[in-house]
Design goal:
This protein is of the alpha+beta class and about 650 residues long. It has 22 helices and 16 strands. About 55% of the residues lie in helices and about 15% in strands. It starts with a helix and ends with a strand. It binds guanosine-5'-triphosphate (GTP). Guanosine-5'-triphosphate binds next to strand 11, helix 19 and helix 20.
Length: about 650
């Protein structure tokens, strides 16, 4: 898998290299393709790590991560913290003439590359979020693919997606990291489900939320541009109405004359209007021959003095005729002015105060470029493109023509009866400056939260599994302890009991006897089954065993009644310890034992009754010598056997104590 991952990474790197070489600008200046360079750095870091050079890998990845983090900050930080101009001047310092946007990768590409670099740094460590990082990069790449569709990119202020080839190289790096991750154990992979899916779902929700926020913010920005355009258009129309009204006032004031004005009179009369309405190119007096005989200001308009307008400006003839011959206000359309540039000329008839004779016409020349410059002096024309059109003809253009934003606004203007169109289009820089940071901040926060959620769920899952394993081994341990305790009990029981009859064995009997060192009188008896070998021989061992069990039950009952202990001594021999029993009472116990055993009606093969012989010894006082006491009982038993069996013999030698059937 590692080999396949290395091969895939190399392939992606090769592709990135081809992109870099293919980009002609990259030869002129290595910094012209920073996004591809960053992909190459991340890829090389990944390759170094896969090939087993962690130090080199980290060095390369840090080199990629530092600019990526800087780019991410430029997307995140508010304009009033670090302005776009500051970022641009920073970019300019690195490479004169460059802007921030020439340097930083597209937003989603910045994120996916940073996550790829972080994951390459961490290695295939599910506990550090490797699978979530890979899943998030996959989602980011899918969204980049969608964002690259032509209709999605049409109206974007920010760049969101890398170029298709760059996306392909990122897919290559991602798949290589995925391959390197695959060899983790099945159990580990199985454990990933619970933390991974909720965290990935949060990533998905975050991306959807970001997309929605981004669309909303774009709409708001567009509405702002629209409102500004409308405002400018309204302002222009209003100003022009004011201008026309002022012009009428101007014309009326000339009715007080009775001849063509002198140069001084003309200057005195026109100067305030010229000053107040800054967009007049000049105000001229035209005589009845359509000649310009007075003009204010004189100096910049010398070339029009003496010009016969009917000849030099035929397109204004109609308007001028209105004023000169019919005494009505005449207004040209948009005409090419004698001084150059488009403009509108108002011709106002000047009549004699005495007889109402028409003396000439006052021409108020409005230059459209000057008008635009005057009206829009509050607009930042360094970053806002303005265009005045009449139909399809461009009359005036202000502001930059390159680096413009994706939206423009068109508004209709009524300028002195002329229907014009005002186009406003903010530059991309202006829109970027106004761009709200909320969607990107939301995206970064959501992705961070998803990562933290993964880590918490993963740790919780691990703890839960460990806890479960511990609980299971605890139960097993408890069962083991219980089994061992039971075994121990069995062993202890077997060490002191006989398995066949469940009676105390010789060891327990001896321990009990020893414990009676102070009790006097103390009697012991040995009970031996007569001719038991014959039972085994003729009726088999199973019958023999059954007989032994019956006898032991009887013996236990009788001896325990007397406060003693009945035990199996070995073979078909039983013993009893009778504390506080003197010779008489122990003899009575022994006799009852013998009789009761007979009453069990256990028969030999030939119908004879099974009998027992009992030897009895009593220690009335004095120290306990177990061997001597047992020896005495044994000898008494021997005597009982020797003297015909089926009897009790007491070791005292007292004949009166001997019983027989
Ligand atoms: N079925 C069975 N037989 C046992 C057991 N322990 C000992 N025996 C038998 O008990 C018999 C004891 O025989 P002997 O010692 O010759 O004595 P006896 O036949 O009882 O004759 P006397 O004691 O002289 O009356 C042997 O045949 C043993 O095999 C046992 O646990 N089960």
């Amino acid at each position: 898998m590692t080999r396949a991952a290395i091969a895939l990474t190399s392939l992606a790197l090769g592709l990135a290299g081809v992109v870099l070489i293919g980009d002609q600008r990259a030869w002129d200046n290595a910094l012209s393709s920073p996004q591809t360079l960053l992909i190459v750095l991340v890829g090389m870091g990944q390759l170094a790590r896969l090939a087993g050079h962690p130090m080199l890998a980290r060095l390369l990845l840090v080199c990629a991560l530092a600019p990526l983090m800087l780019a991410l900050s430029s997307y995140l930080l508010p304009e009033y913290w670090i302005s776009l101009a500051t970022w641009d001047s920073l970019a300019h310092r690195f490479l004169p003439g460059s802007l921030l946007d020439d340097w930083r990768p597209a937003l989603l590409a910045t994120l996916s590359l940073a996550l790829l670099a972080v994951n390459a740094w961490l290695g295939e460590r599910p506990n550090l979020g490797s699978p979530l990082l890979l899943g998030t990069v996959a989602l980011l790449l899918v969204i980049q693919g969608l964002e690259s569709l032509p209709n999605a990119t049409a109206h974007q202020v920010l760049r969101y997606a890398a170029s298709p080839t760059q996306q392909l190289t990122q897919w290559g790096l991602l798949l290589a990291q995925g391959l390197a991750f695959l060899p983790i154990g099945y159990a580990e992979r199985h454990n990933l489900h619970r933390p991974l899916w909720p965290a990935l779902a949060l990533v998905g929700v975050t991306l959807l939320f970001w997309h929605q926020q981004k669309a909303l913010e774009d709409r708001t920005l567009r509405a702002e541009v629209h409102a500004q355009g409308q405002q400018l258009a309204g302002h222009t129309t209003h100003e022009f109405k004011e201008h026309v009204a002022a012009m009428h006032r101007f014309a009326n004031s000339w009715n007080l004359l009775d001849s063509a004005p002198t140069v001084e009179q003309w200057a005195l009369q026109t100067a305030p209007y010229y000053r107040d309405f800054r967009y007049f190119l000049n105000i001229a007096f035209i005589n009845l021959d359509s000649r310009v005989i007075r003009v204010y200001p004189v100096q910049p308009n010398l070339q029009v003095l003496g010009a016969r307008l009917f000849d030099v400006q035929p397109e204004g003839r109609e308007a001028l005729s209105q004023a000169l011959f019919h005494g009505r206000v005449g207004r040209t359309g948009v005409v090419e002015l004698l001084q150059g540039g488009p403009g509108i000329i108002h011709y106002l008839p000047v009549t004699s105060a005495d007889d109402g004779r028409i003396l000439g016409a006052a021409a108020m020349v409005v230059s459209l470029p000057v008008l635009m410059g005057t009206f829009f002096d509050e607009v930042d024309t360094g970053r806002m493109f303005l265009e005045l059109r009449q139909g399809e003809t461009t009359l005036v253009q202000l502001g930059p023509t390159t680096g413009l934003g994706p939206w423009q606004h068109q508004a209709s203007l009524d300028v002195a009866g002329q229907s014009l169109t005002l186009v406003t289009r903010p530059s991309r820089a202006l829109l970027l400056e106004r761009r709200a940071r909320l969607p990107v901040v939301g995206l970064a926060t959501g992705l961070t939260l998803a990562y933290l959620l993964y880590l918490v769920l993963y740790a919780y899952r691990r703890l839960a599994l460990q806890h479960r394993a511990l609980h299971r081994s605890n139960i097993e341990l408890r069962h083991e302890v219980q089994a061992r305790a039971k075994l121990q009990q069995e062993i202890e029981w077997l060490a002191r009991h006989d398995e066949l009859t469940a009676l105390p064995n010789r060891r327990l009997f001896m321990e009990t006897l020893k414990a009676q060192a102070e009790r006097r009188p103390l009697s012991v008896l040995i009970c031996d089954v007569d001719h038991f070998k014959q039972v085994n021989d003729h009726q088999g061992h199973l019958i023999g065993d059954r007989y032994l069990k019956s006898l032991s039950e009887v013996g236990r009952e009788i001896v325990e009644e007397a406060g003693g202990l009945f035990a199996r001594y070995g073979g078909e021999e039983f013993v009893a310890c009778l504390p506080a029993c003197d010779a008489h009472s122990s003899l009575a116990v022994a006799e009852r034992l013998r009789e009761r055993m007979q009453e069990e009606n256990l028969l030999h093969h030939d119908g004879r009754q099974l009998t027992v012989s009992i030897g009895l010894a009593t220690l009335e006082d004095g120290p306990l010598d177990i061997a001597a006491l047992m020896q005495a009982a044994d000898e008494a038993l021997y005597q009982a056997k020797a003297s015909g069996r089926d009897r009790v013999v007491c070791a005292s030698g007292d004949a009166s104590l001997e019983t027989r059937r």
